[in-house]
């Protein structure tokens, strides 16, 4: 078995028993990146020097006979919207092409303190706006299961890297589905934590009331290990919640008898591939056979989630992205005639077309005279969606749905029609509007492409999601199937 296919738990044992050194492990992953990334294109920056230095520190610790923490020596990578001190952080945008942050995001610091080894920074849709990673200002990332298809987005690099065994785990960010939708497309596990559980300090903002950082991993257990390391209160993020932090790995028990699972009928609606539905119905039967109580239920305001999301997300983005003006950092145009043209030209040159589209949409929705009709209406719809979930969770511990209505689409298939692209997030955006946690995990295949199952829980019920996910994973083998790329060349 290749070392790069292993889980956090397996690698931890190999390191502690000195069967492998942290340096050998880091070198193994760097070699894997070198061999497959020219095809996958998950990485914007590979931080070889940092990785080897961090691995060396872990080896020194091992040599002193000290015990290792769960993530110590484990090679990982970060989405390129997470600030890394002294390491280029682009958000996949030309406007931040030359940006080298003077500080770390809180999650970067937490993983550093946990001893994880940083392999590099990962491609994404520019400013996390997109569902395919085709909106990157640099290049598109490919799906390891089929190089002609998208990996999903916006965390396409984070997810493709895990699926192609280029990192043990990665972090992504999820504003409307950007961890879960690509996790579904690439057959890995991705969690969008409860809003406020993981500090957003140092995450380059897209839509601040929706953004959350979360782990992308090969297994549910790995996901819990990473969440343990990154969750927790942070004084630098005023929306970060101060709660006693559980040990999420304690939720990894197989007994789910009596677990109440609701299946919202609205998530099996129009645009859904019938073969994807078949996979999900089979997953439901698996849960029933494990003793869960499964029932159809309704989230009646689901149809308003998409329009509400695209108004709120773009409104917040238009405000967040006002700071990129060429004055303080990032790209500045070469030939400004005056200060106004400096702002305008800098932004015209620096932002891609999807980002511009969203700034315009958001500015329009917030403008005097339209605010009540659009933004305020969207916020009211958001409240109805929150109530739908509150009511459902009075009756159910977990809600279950497909993560996406289809499997991964072809590169270029949806790029000329933003509306059909937006629809690939129809099952994921309501979760961000409600601020609840949701986990996507492998549930089967359609024509050789992975299908994702989404498990949703009430606020701060990540443990319940891990429990439900772990039981499913232990009783199925979808997570063990690898894209043929791992055997040296994709199909
Ligand atoms: N695809 C959605 C969008 O384009 C979600 C993106 C995200 O979660 N960052 O806004």
How would you describe this structure to a colleague?
Belongs to the amidase family. GatA subfamily. Keywords: ATP-binding, Ligase, Nucleotide-binding, Protein biosynthesis, Transferase. Its EC number is 6.3.5.7. It is an enzyme of class 6 (ligase). This protein is α/β, with parallel strands linked by helices. It has a domain of 252 residues: Alpha-Beta Complex (Amidase signature (AS) enzymes). 37% of the residues lie in helices and 13% in strands. It is built from 15 helices and 11 strands. The chain has an 11-stranded mixed β-sheet with strand order 1-3-2-4-6-5-10-11-9-7-8, with helices on both faces. β10 and β11 form a beta hairpin. α9 packs across α12. The C terminus is likely disordered. Bound molecules: glutamine.
């Amino acid at each position: 078995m290749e070392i790069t296919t292993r889980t956090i738990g397996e690698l931890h044992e190999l390191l502690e028993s000195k069967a492998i050194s942290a340096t050998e492990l880091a070198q193994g992953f760097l070699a894997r990146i070198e061999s497959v990334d020219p095809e996958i294109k998950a990485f914007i920056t590979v931080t070889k020097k940092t990785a080897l230095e961090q691995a060396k520190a872990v080896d020194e610790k091992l040599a002193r006979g000290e015990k290792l923490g769960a993530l110590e020596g484990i090679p990982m990578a970060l989405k390129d919207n997470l600030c890394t001190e002294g390491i280029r952080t682009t958000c996949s945008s030309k406007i931040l092409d030359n940006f080298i942050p003077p500080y770390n995001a809180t999650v970067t610091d937490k993983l550093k303190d946990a001893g994880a080894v940083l392999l590099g920074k990962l491609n994404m849709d520019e400013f996390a706006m997109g569902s395919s990673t085709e909106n990157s200002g640099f290049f598109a990332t490919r799906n390891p299961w089929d190089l002609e298809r998208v990996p999903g987005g916006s965390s396409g690099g984070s997810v493709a890297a895990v699926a192609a065994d280029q990192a043990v785990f990665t972090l992504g960010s999820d504003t409307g589905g950007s961890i879960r939708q690509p996790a579904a497309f690439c057959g890995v596990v991705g969690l969008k934590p409860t809003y406020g559980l993981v500090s957003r300090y140092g995450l380059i903002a897209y839509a601040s009331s929706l953004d959350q950082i979360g782990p992308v991993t090969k297994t549910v257990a790995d996901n819990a290990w990473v969440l343990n390391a990154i969750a927790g209160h942070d004084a630098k993020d005023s929306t970060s919640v101060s709660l006693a932090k559980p040990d999420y790995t304690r939720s990894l028990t197989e007994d789910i008898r009596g677990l109440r699972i609701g299946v919202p009928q609205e998530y099996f609606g129009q645009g859904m591939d019938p073969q994807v539905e078949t996979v999900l119905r089979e997953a439901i039967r698996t849960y029933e056979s494990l003793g869960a109580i499964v029932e159809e239920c309704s989230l009646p305001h689901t149809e308003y989630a998409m329009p509400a999301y695209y108004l709120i997300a773009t409104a917040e983005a238009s405000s967040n992205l006002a700071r990129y003006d060429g004055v303080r950092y990032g790209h500045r145009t070469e030939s400004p005639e005056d200060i106004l043209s400096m702002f305008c030209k800098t932004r015209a040159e620096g932002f891609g077309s999807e980002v511009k589209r969203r700034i315009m949409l958001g500015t329009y929705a917030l403008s005097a005279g339209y605010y009540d009709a659009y933004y305020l209406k969207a916020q009211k719809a958001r409240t109805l969606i929150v109530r739908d979930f509150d009511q459902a969770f009075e009756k159910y511990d977990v809600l279950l749905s497909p993560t996406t209505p289809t499997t991964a689409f072809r590169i270029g298939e949806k790029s000329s029609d933003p509306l059909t692209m937006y629809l690939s997030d129809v099952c994921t955006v309501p979760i961000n509007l409600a601020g609840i946690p949701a986990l996507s995990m492998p549930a089967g295949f359609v024509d050789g492409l992975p299908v994702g199952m989404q498990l949703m829980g009430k606020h701060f019920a990540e443990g319940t999601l891990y429990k439900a996910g772990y039981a499913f994973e232990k009783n199925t083998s979808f997570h063990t199937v690898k894209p043929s790329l791992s055997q040296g060349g994709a199909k």
